[in-house]
Amino acid sequence: MELSDIARKFVVHWGEMGSAWGVNRTVAQIHALLFFHGRPLHAEEIAETLAVARSNVSTSLKELQNWNLIRIAHVLGDRRDYFETSVDVWELFRTIVRERKEREFDPTLRVLGDLVADPGFAKESADAQDRVREAQRFMDTLGAWSEEMLRLSPTTLEKVLKLGASVQKFVRGADSKD
């Protein structure tokens, strides 16, 4: 498949952003390709289009599946596996937030809980105890908030986000540059 200039720019940029987010560039580019085209593609087509090794595509597809960002699709009369992603940006956003929370945020919250529950924690300085407890409270609150946000429908979530921007303008004042 030949990429248009627009498609190429999108895929290349998404790959660069993936690297900034801690995701392998090829993984991000494959996801961008699937999202941009909005139709299932097979691994050989992906490898040829992105000019990357088939083995790299296979590894990247497995990683995207582990993140629940792609799924296997089948085409009648073709035995190959095809891969597709959601074309709904809200669904993708929710999946990414949910997966990152589960992989990065929740383990940290568990460690903080374990530290506070450890009998040796009482031997730490009062200031250190306060900082750890405050970090735990903050993360608990943020975790509960994110869970509530993930339960909202995309329409309601968009309204909440817009409302949040309006509240910020109100709190800062119309003339503030903050």
From TrEMBL:
PANTHER family from the UniProt entry: HTH-TYPE TRANSCRIPTIONAL REGULATOR MJ1563-RELATED
Gene Ontology molecular-function annotations: DNA binding; DNA-binding transcription factor activity
Family designation: Belongs to the GbsR family.
Keyword Oxidoreductase recorded: no
The entry's keywords: DNA-binding, Transcription, Transcription regulation
Keyword Transport among UniProt keywords: no
Domain annotation HTH marR-type: ranges: 22-80
Organism: Roseateles oligotrophus
Superkingdom of origin: Bacteria
InterPro entries in alphabetical order: HTH-GbsR_regulator (IPR052362), HTH_MarR-typ (IPR000835), MJ1563 (IPR026282), WH-like_DNA-bd_sf (IPR036388), WH_DNA-bd_sf (IPR036390)
Organism lineage: Bacteria, Pseudomonadati, Pseudomonadota, Betaproteobacteria, Burkholderiales
Protein name: HTH-type transcriptional regulator
